Amino acid sequence: MKTLRYFPVLLRRRLTARSRCFGALAVLAALMVALPAVAQKPADAGEKPAAADKPAAAKNTLPPLPPAAHVDQSMELNGRTLHYTVTVEPFPVYDKDGKEAGQVVVTTYAVPGKDRPVTFAFNGGPGASSVYLNFGAIGPKHLNIGNQGDSPSDPTTLSDNPGTWLDFTDLVFIDPIGTGFSRSMVSEAETKKMFYSTEPDIEYLSRIVYDWLVKYDRLTSRKYLIGESYGGFRGPRITYYLQSQLGIAMNGVVLVSPYLNPTIEQNGDLSPIPWMVTLPSITAANLEREKKLTPEAMADVIAYAEGEYATTLIHGYSDKPAMEKMIAKVTQMTGLDPEFVRYSGGRLETEAYLREVHREQGQLGSIYDSNVTMFDPFPFAPDQRASDPLLASIIAPTTTAMVDFVTRVVGWKVDARYNALSYEVNRMWDRDNDLRRGSVTQLRQAVAADPKMRVMIVHGWNDLSCPFMGSVLSVNQIPVMGDPTRLTVHEYPGGHMFYTRESSRVALRGDVMKMFATH
């Protein structure tokens, strides 16, 4: 992984076929275990920042975040009225000496009733707030965004969400530091150290999950976690950290378009795997344009990618007839210009594909769903210079909708900027070696340690940021540990945010309800 590529999550354009979703993707070992350094008591308050560092005072001049605000709401779901309470509130984060170092804003949707499960939700980026899972996927209200033809200036009208999970689980949306209204209260250098690298990020977010459970007396509730894109990278790590260090066990985990395993994207000059990962999603987009996208059609695509395609790439030009056959097959599968496929050697580099697939219309495809397009303002430039089409269309409506909901509907009056997707957080993030190793190790360990925990990995077929085939190949290598249905991969029509399509969102809801009912 050479560049961050997540979604509600990713900020830079993809530069090579192997720089995907940085994807591109939960709780207390024992109450007596020492708490993570970021969540305890603060460092020497007398220390002064280095000259080049931004002074902490610059952060603390911001008005304090308000206390919790609540509002009662209702929605219509499957012919009945569902009543719930929305709470918006900050949770403090402390440094190792007990000094408050940041505030994490959490939005909770809760339905009255005993023994209800609770689900914690994270998006990715790094730098994305949880608004995308909230208003896009599983919250009680839905905002139409992310589909072909949607405009940033469309009315930001929230409607009842038929794909919500709220009738079978309470929902807790967590905005990491620097996203949403969540903020650091320390200098820039300390912010990077405490919040903007792999392990500290996992530790303080796990502690927020723990603190919420303690505050609301929900330690004995059934507990679930959902993470999207880089949130899907966080998911296995938070689950395992909570399980092994904080003594809190998740009953189930849902990873949405996760950045899970960057190692599969390496060495595309020799390995067929990076191209095996890309080809099925490109083919899915073409099948969708031809109105032929079905699970049966995609099963044939996956079988070809895992079999004859991979073998032909390995043999290379030592078997020229097989190469010619493969190039003809890839051309037929993708609908691309035969010369483009030939000059690519059947290896379809993502950014080149996104410029080529809609070139005759003067448009670019999105890495998150190549059938979501916009006009290319620089069609003759050697490289893509425009923003990603999908990202360009969603920031304004999600920001407007969330700020209006929090401040006007819930009444949490705050004088601060809302970051639906923070380029500053993404810029400051430490791309450390731990991040490059992905989260498959923690996924294996968490599943092995709890024979009842279930994990669903879910993808949209058209996603080239975090392609579904990467998860398929990764899960194929994980040993079966007890019930083989405990760890599964599901695909749906759509892209990285496949849930923007109502049919896929409702299908996801049905699959997750079955998972909840199993444990």
Describe the overall structure:
The protein is an alpha/beta fold and 519 residues long. It has 16 helices and 16 strands. Helix content is 36%, strand content 17%. Strands 2, 3, 4, 5, 8, 9, 10, 12, 15 and 16 form a 10-stranded mixed β-sheet that branches. Strands 1-11 form a two-stranded antiparallel ribbon. It has a two-stranded antiparallel ribbon with strand order 6-7. A hairpin with a 5-residue loop joins strand 3 (80-94) and strand 4 (100-110). The longest helix has 21 residues, at 295-315. The model is unreliable at 1-59 (pLDDT under 50).
What secondary-structure arrangement, pairings included, does this model have?
Blueprint (H helix, E strand, L loop, with lengths): L27 E2 L26 H5 L8 E9 L2 E15 L5 E11 L7 E5 L8 H8 L2 E3 L14 E3 L9 E5 L8 E2 L3 H8 L2 H18 L7 E6 L1 H15 L1 E2 L4 E5 L16 H17 L5 H21 L4 H15 L3 H6 L6 H7 L6 E3 L7 E3 L13 H21 L13 H6 L4 H4 L3 H10 L4 E7 L7 H9 L10 E6 L9 H17 L1
Parallel strand pairs: 5-8, 5-10, 10-12, 12-15, 15-16
Antiparallel strand pairs: 1-11, 2-3, 3-4, 4-8, 4-9, 6-7, 13-14
Helix pairs in contact: 4-5, 5-14, 6-7, 6-15, 7-8
Question: What's the quick description here?
Answer:
With 519 residues, this protein is of the alpha/beta class. 36% of the residues lie in helices and 17% in strands. The protein folds into two domains: 28-263 and 403-518, Alpha/Beta hydrolase fold, catalytic domain (Rossmann fold, 3-Layer(aba) Sandwich), CATH 3.40.50.1820; 269-336.
